Amino acid sequence: MKKVRHQVAVIVLTVLLVGSGVFAILAQAQNQPGGGNIPSDSMGGGALIFRRPENPALHQGTGSAGAVGGGSVSSRRKPKPVAAATAAAAAHERVIAKGNAARNAAIPRYSEAEQEYKLAATQDPNDARAHAGLGNIYLDQNRFNDAITAYQQALKVKPDYLAAYQPLAFALVHVGRFAEAAEVLHQALPFDTNNVEIYNNLGYAYVHAGRFPEAIEACEQAIAMMGKTGESYKLELQVRNEVLSNAYKNLGNAYNEQKRYNDAAEALKHAAEIEPRNASAHFNLGLALYNGGRYSEAIEAYKAVVALRPSLAGAHFNLGITYLRINDKESARREYEILKPINSDLASQLQKLIH
User: Is 0.90 topped by the overall pTM?
Assistant: First the structure.
């Protein structure tokens, strides 16, 4: 089954122009990972929601030579082995704290943070925080394979270390290991069963892994959960809209891959209604409507895209192609004239089809 790729270049879908005897190239959506604080392309489809991982939490009372875990300290002198262990634990916390501070600096000091987290991992190889800290700074620097190794080690020593699951999945997505990303997210669910972002991201990973029925199930679960008052109130409105819109876009992408174009259009209409200024929602809606033969509706969707992003070449190209499907060559020529200074290659392709 064809895998959906996350590429910066425009992916093209060949479709037959009925009665013309030629083939048209339709600029296809690109489903690159993004969302959260990671920018995504305006032609992007549903996104993997990502939040920059927080630094590993420090254990209370161990930032200095205090008691591990906080609480009161007895005035009675401790046996030397216990005192030594307490001092070692406090020193370990200071190392983690130094790594956190280096990462959080106005200009992050990643080399210093890496040294501190590695030292912490040497001091206590079973402290998942040290490995997760390394994963965080590697992810910050787009060192995705290093991040994968670090997060996997964190989960090896502490399988319920929830903070490592989503960053690990995000790193796996960035190197194209979608099936593994889906498995990681699936493993996270028992530790956070009501996390709608995990379900959305699971749907995204399944779409890209070619497992469309499972993608549909995961996206529908996210949508259903956000429809429940008990889950919705926990999210800020902006975050809720972001997750819900992406869940519908991921759902629409899964339906598109199954050639269920009317179902895809229905899902993508919801995404466009939730985020009316989201160009990608309208773009993917245009694709679904076009593929379903609903050309007049597709034209309106692409008009919405170019209204939001006048210089988006793929939208003008697709709009021109769709005009040709209803034999409106005059409107297609207008799109050609707009497209010429934006993208001469696509303009040339459109001109050939017009003639």
Answer: no
